[in-house]
Specification:
7-stranded mixed β-sheet; 0% helix; 53% strand; single chain; 11 strands; mainly beta; 4-stranded antiparallel β-sheet
Length: 116
């Protein structure tokens, strides 16, 4: 069982920045594939960014490329999502995801609200 706890959400003006953090339990964090997803009101949950185990290959949704950066610190069991140039359409609940031996684990989510 892997537990994930997100933090760092909040209210920010368009064009601003936020950094989300996800703390994971377990002693083998380096073997987890980690990612961020989001769900806006009335919409389905969608992929935002991911970082693989090992050498940390990353990939991003087209909508956030060039604005968001995912990173991980295996010594702290933490994955970060740096979000810059935020847009109104980035407003959503952001969820941390861990894939461990093909099993998905989810955090409780953190709200990000971008205002005009």
């Amino acid at each position: 069982q892997v537990q994930l706890v997100e933090s760092g959400g909040g209210l920010v003006q368009a064009g601003g920045s936020l950094r989300l953090s996800c703390a994971a339990s377990g002693r083998t964090f380096g073997t987890y594939d980690m990612g961020w997803y989001r769900q806006a009101p009335g919409k389905e949950r969608e992929f935002v960014a991911a970082i693989r185990r090992g050498i940390g290959i990353t990939n991003y949704a087209d909508s956030v490329k060039g604005r968001f950066t995912i990173s991980r610190d295996n010594t702290k069991n933490t994955v970060l999502l740096q979000m810059n140039s935020l847009k109104l359409e980035d407003t959503a609940i952001y969820y941390c995801n861990a894939q461990v031996y093909s099993i998905d684990y989810w955090g409780q989510g953190t709200q990000v609200t971008v205002s005009s």
